[in-house]
């Protein structure tokens, strides 16, 4: 595998300096939000203030009317308790009032969200979304054969990628990043696959952890990764 300097301008996405989102046609596309992560952090001895309103403001600041959320809206794996349910209803109510269309590709943390989002006519919770030549999904599970046949580009989150950057004083610090892959899927298993590129979107929540080491998951475990490139959020 080698580093590839991809011509990002040829991708059907727009990137903005400092943004954790990417933009595809009329949509903003964001990665993992992990609402309720504060409870887990506080249980480990950290003192973390409620961040939901801050995250919500960041989403609304994208200034679009259509939104794709690539899963893991929740931080917890367990069943939704009444307190969390109330927070989620409030969160989605504000999103629903602010966007014409919201598509959520269900992540591995998102059990129980169906009952919450069913209250809102303009919010869909689905396993994957195909639009034009791009397939959107969380990234923890395998895509459908329909997506593999129709999409040239796969857009996922799930991996929380970041890079370590060393400053002039020799101090390392972490920067969340986009990850760009050129991939091919095994023809024996996926004979009709059109997928050739994969974009991994950074986590939208800046307070949760990430992974410096690239660990293929989901469909990427079966892909031949021919080349890769990372960019931190300040590149664009």
How would the global form be characterised? globular
DSSP helical segment count: 5
What is the residue-mean pLDDT, rounded to a whole number? 86
Number of E-type strands: 14
CATH topology: Purple Acid Phosphatase, chain A, domain 2
CATH structural architecture: 4-Layer Sandwich
* Total number of domains: 1
The biggest sheet, with number of strands, parallel, antiparallel or mixed sense and barrel status, is: 8 strands, mixed
| Helical amount | 10-25%
Radius of gyration: 18 Å
Distance between the termini: 25 Å
InterPro entries: Calcineurin-like_PHP, Metallo-depent_PP-like, Pesterase_MJ0037-like
GO molecular function, one term: hydrolase activity
Domain Calcineurin-like phosphoesterase: 28-223
Protein name: Metallophosphoesterase
Could you please describe the fold and organization of this structure?
By secondary structure, the protein is an alpha/beta fold. The protein has a single domain, classed as Purple Acid Phosphatase, chain A, domain 2, CATH 3.60.21. It has five helices and 14 strands. One of its GO terms (molecular function) is hydrolase activity. This is Metallophosphoesterase. It comes from Candidatus Parvarchaeum acidophilus ARMAN-5. InterPro entries: Calcineurin-like_PHP, Metallo-depent_PP-like, Pesterase_MJ0037-like.
Could you give the topology of this structure?
Blueprint: E1 2-3, E2 14-15, E3 22-24, E4 27-30, H1 37-43, H2 52-60, E5 66-69, H3 82-98, E6 101-105, H4 113-117, E7 123-126, E8 128-131, E9 134-137, H5 145-150, E10 153-156, E11 162-166, E12 172-184, E13 197-200, E14 224-232
Parallel strand pairs: 1-14, 4-5, 5-6, 6-7, 9-10, 10-13
Antiparallel strand pairs: 2-3, 3-4, 8-9, 11-12, 12-13, 12-14
Helix pairs in contact: 2-3
């Amino acid at each position: 595998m080698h580093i590839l300097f991809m011509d990002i301008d040829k991708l059907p996405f727009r990137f903005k300096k400092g943004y954790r989102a990417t933009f595809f046609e009329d949509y903003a596309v964001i990665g993992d939000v992990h609402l309720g992560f504060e409870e887990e952090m506080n249980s480990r001895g950290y003192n973390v203030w409620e961040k939901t309103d801050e995250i919500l403001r960041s989403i609304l600041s994208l200034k679009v009317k259509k939104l794709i959320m690539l899963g893991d809206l929740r931080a917890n794996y367990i069943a939704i308790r009444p307190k969390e349910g109330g927070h989620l209803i409030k969160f989605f109510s504000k999103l629903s009032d602010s966007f014409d269309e919201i598509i959520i590709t269900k992540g591995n943390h998102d059990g129980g969200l169906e009952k919450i989002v069913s209250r809102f006519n303009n919010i869909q919770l689905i396993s994957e979304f195909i639009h034009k030549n791009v397939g959107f999904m969380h990234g923890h599970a395998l895509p459908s054969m329909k997506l593999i046949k129709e999409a040239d580009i796969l857009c996922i989150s799930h991996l929380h990628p970041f890079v370590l950057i060393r400053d002039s004083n020799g101090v390392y610090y972490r920067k969340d990043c986009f990850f760009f892959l050129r991939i091919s899927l095994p023809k024996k298993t996926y004979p009709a696959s059109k997928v050739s590129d994969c974009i991994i979107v950074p986590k939208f929540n800046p307070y949760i952890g990430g992974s410096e080491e690239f660990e293929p998951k989901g469909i990427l475990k079966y892909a031949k990764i021919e080349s890769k490139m990372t960019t931190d959020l300040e590149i664009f």
